[in-house]
Amino acid sequence: MNDRLVLPAGLEFPHTLLDVSIEFDSHIKSGKVAGYKPIPTCFEPLDSYLGGGLVPESLILVGGPPGVGKTVFILQAARNIAAAARDNKTAACVVCFEHGEVYLYHRLLCLESTMSSRLGLTMEDIRRAALTQGIGEPGLETLLTTLTAARDAWSRITQYWERLFLVKGHPAKTTLNVLDTFLTRLQNQFASVVLFVDYLQKVPVVSTGVELTPEKQIRIVTEGLKNLALAHSVPIVGVAAADAEGLKSLRVRFEDLWGGSTVNYEPDVAVMLNPLRHARGKPTAEVLFSIEKNRLGPTGALFQHTLHGEYYAFDPRGSSGDAQETNCV
After folding, report:
1. What is the pTM (predicted TM-score) of this model?
2. Mean pLDDT, to the nearest integer, of 137-145?
């Protein structure tokens, strides 16, 4: 009597190299080439160091001290990806455990206002316009009627607002399985997807009666994000917090990220952001970017971007590397 061999759901028996070769050939012939194309963040020289942008199946961690601009960077990168996808085949999704969707939308208005005008829109401008009485109906219309910069920003947002998704992460419910479901749905609509998670230490892990230490939870989440990147053939960008000892240093390094050896091992790329300071220790508007791990290219690259904090925007052109021609808008 032959026992029937059964694998768990979702798994397959090993494929021969011949099987893989046939599958590869069918992908190329059918035009399924999205998994081979890097997706530019439109930050230079970062994209050049990554081989053209974010590579499918890769996990990219973004770390640094609080307030340095990590959320600003990932939201701007997500915006850049969505805005550049004129063919409607690429989408970006930001899952943020720190801020709600409407607040992130406010930040995008401020960011977009700097793209078309030197007179940028600030969060205080938005609050003041929202509280203005007697000018039309309360809401977005009031803001657009009151501020020219807001109208220009909104006009630019409408060009990509169906390709950029915002999610407020739930501290108990937005698990790895939920992120898996998000990716499945988005890939039913778009050929290429980039998932941003801000931040990975807050992704909840379902525990069946076993108490998890913070380090074990972070290990499970980091490994899980890498597995999702592989399973869906997408890039995943995760913001990572530094541990207490790392925050005491003048410069937060990759090894200072909270979570220990797993956080150091799993990601394909680690980009650290640190404020540049004057000789007396006072921060400047410049932020130092350092690539401290890179399986996709050179490691150890240093470059800096100017942060326009009141507009929640970086100047996407870094101070090192030659200017590159891109299709970014």
Report:
1. 0.88
2. 66
